[in-house]
Amino acid sequence: MKRWLPVAAVGLLLAGCASAVTENGLRLGYLGNLTHATAIVGVANGLLAKSLGDTRLTTQVFNAGPAEMTALLGGQLDAAYVGPSSALNGYVRSHGQALKIIAGATMGGAELVVRSSIDSVAQLKGKTLATPQLGNTQDVAVRYWLSQHGLRTSTDGSGDVAIRPQDNATTLDQFRAGKIDGAWLPEPWASRLVVEAQAKVLVDERDLWPDGRFASTDLVVSTKFLREHPETVRRLIAGELATNDWISDSAVQAAKTVNTELQRLSGAKLTDEEIARAWSQQQVTDDPLASTLGVQADHAVTVGLMSAIDLRGIVDVGPLNEALTAAGKPKVDDAGLGATQ
Known about the structure:
By secondary structure, the chain is of the alpha/beta class. The protein has helices spanning 37-44, 47-52, 65-73, 84-93, 137-148, 168-176, 189-197, 223-228, 230-249, 251-266, 272-280, 291-302, 318-326, and strands spanning 3-6, 25-31, 56-62, 79-82, 99-108, 110-114, 128-131, 162-165, 182-186, 200-204, 215-222, 282-284, 306-309. The strands form three sheets. A six-stranded mixed β-sheet has the order 3-2-4-11-5-12, with helices on both faces. Strands 8-7-9-6-10 form a five-stranded mixed β-sheet, with helices on both faces. Strands 1-13 form a two-stranded antiparallel ribbon. It is globular and about 55 Å long. The protein starts with a strand and ends in a 15-residue tail after the last helix. The relative contact order is 0.20.
């Protein structure tokens, strides 16, 4: 089984892979996006901290996954909610040593939104699109989708379509100012462009996947932390299950909680229309949807961001399946990407 190794385009750091774990603590990273609702709600409501018990939880918020993986590989994080492409990059960049994907978090919640004058992919030739960061999950998605329609991109911004990786807030400002023509973004940023800047949806990424199911956020943990603190990892997973159950059972309140936290993190509160639209685009899940990881890796190699490598061992759903069984829920499949013998 061949999978894919990133080249210099992503530039993840390996220094400090054997992280110095803070005594009796867990350092968790996540993004200030709606697609990270599990982390946002779990932190805000104290569900993750409650599950961790005496283990102190500290958090750090990032704009995009590659920077977050740099922190994990550099020893500043023990676990992270992150997009699959960034997790893949971190795993292969560390030669399979640095991290494991141990659970899901969110599926869906990503769209290509463009100017109202653009009605087809052919009209994107010569245009400029934005993504959250070079090599992140949406960056890979848009480059692959364009390649499937015969449009070239490059990491330096040249090609048939210029791709401009940048902060999501900058993307909104530049779209309003007419400096870019669209963006492939996670929620709530896609909805903000639609509602605030009159963008329209050209691609809902769910339409590109069987049954509309693809992982937008997974939970990863450093291999060292998993080996040295397995009980803490089990408690983290228990906290995720409790959080996702609460989100599913209390969707209206969960959306309000996320909106409040996004305002705290970004300074901008979503309108009722924006939060309702963004919330409808994604769904929490404990399943990492491991079967989609190889596909996302294949997409990255097509656009020149990865070369072949074996991904077996990237997934460890043993602790998750123990928790699911205890809760009377069905186990999840590792799609053959679990620990090798």
